Amino acid sequence: MLDARGNRKLRSENQKLRTEGVxxxxxxxxxxxxxxxxxxxxxxxxxxxxxxxxxxxxxxEPEPDYRLPYELSSDYxxxxxxxxxxxxxxxxxxxxxxxxxxxxxxxxxxxxPKDNTLSHYLNENAGRNQFANLGVDGIHPVxxxxxxxxxxxxxxxxxxxxxxxxxxxxxxxxxLQTTKEFHFNHPRLVPQFNPNIPCYKDSYSKKFSAxxxxxxxxxxxxxxxxxxxxxSMDLSTWTLEHPYENPxxxxxxxxxxxxxxxxxxxxxxxDYDQNEHVPWTEKGIAKADFQWVEPATxxxxxxxxxxxxxxxxxxxxxxxxxxxxxxxxxxxxSHNTYRKMKSEIEAWxxxxxxxxxxxxxxPERFYRDASHPLSEGYDMLAKxxxxxxxxxSSILSSAVRRPARGVPRTADREARxxxxxxxxxxxxxxxGPQRGP
Length: 437
Description:
Strands 5-4-6-9-10 form a 5-stranded parallel sheet, with helices on both faces. The protein has a single domain (61-215, 254-421), classed as Rossmann fold, CATH 3.40.50.1110. β2 and β3 (94-95) form a beta hairpin. By secondary structure, it is α/β, with parallel strands linked by helices. The chain has helices spanning 2-19, 33-57, 76-87, 105-108, 118-126, 141-151, 204-215, 217-229, 235-241, 247-252, 299-313, 332-351, 375-387, 389-401, 410-421, and strands at residues 58-59, 90-91, 94-95, 99-102, 131-133, 159-164, 255-256, 261-265, 317-322, 356-357. α5 packs across α13 (375-387) and α7 (204-215) crosses α8.
């Protein structure tokens, strides 16, 4: 027993002698201060340059009828890139779109192909590619305000057609006023802390990450990679789901061999189910009794007002398109309330000198549901806009007279003078049922 204890003591003393003079021992690699500075510089360079370099690697050349793909609706980094691309005065020697059409799935064209949307038919009437589709499927006014504030900063000195879908005010739930938690569209775009959204009860960490992502391009870029290439999963989750696959191979598969450009091509923007292109009457949809929220207390309407003021502060010419809502679907009491609400919206637009158009209700067969027109409805709506005096004086005239960047702004001042004298009121306010997106 004593020999065993003696042996353990001897081994302990020998180990102490071997480690004597060594200040610290670890399996990790230790770096001196200078090398840590170098590592920090390299990481900072990656952090700042990776999103910029990726744009050179990933092909993004939207066609005239491009719209953000449905499955990429929450890819706000891509939306920001699309805004920047659209807002450049020239692209490959061609003048880009002068007017941006912004809104929810009504603008996006939920039940029609990309060449049957409102922006397509506006271009058809204009005879050139003047209008760009910047609609996002499922976006509501509260989220739209955040999208344009943080991811549409480049939208300035442009013509804007801003669509208002009254459907978002058709109930307290749609208006985000219920206290019971429910999952609504685009929660990362709404105010995370102030003002408080009663039904939005995400964890503090998720809210904080949503705020940080708005200001850090690197985080937005990593979200873009997850959504576009890895099925909205982070890299660790994706590797668990695909243990024998190389994540880089997913990107390589999109390489453009034909052009021999070492770039990746984003997926196309075609999202359309032909079986859904049928009128609401053939789908068995019954008339509804919507519990409309008054504009004075509506959260969605207040954020829509903020969006109008924000776009105007960026020196954009803002034209508001209200509806046309499918009033054929409304029961009598709901219809009367809707007309009153629409009158209050119109009064605010007039008081704030915002050009607008409230189109008459479309034929019943041109609606897919309460707010989405079918192809024939978009075609008719585009023709009505081109006949509307407010649209002519605010959008069409300024598009012709707006000078290129760097050119003397005499013509621009003349255009503003013409717009100030124009009739900003709608020349065709609906007297009967109307339909919305």
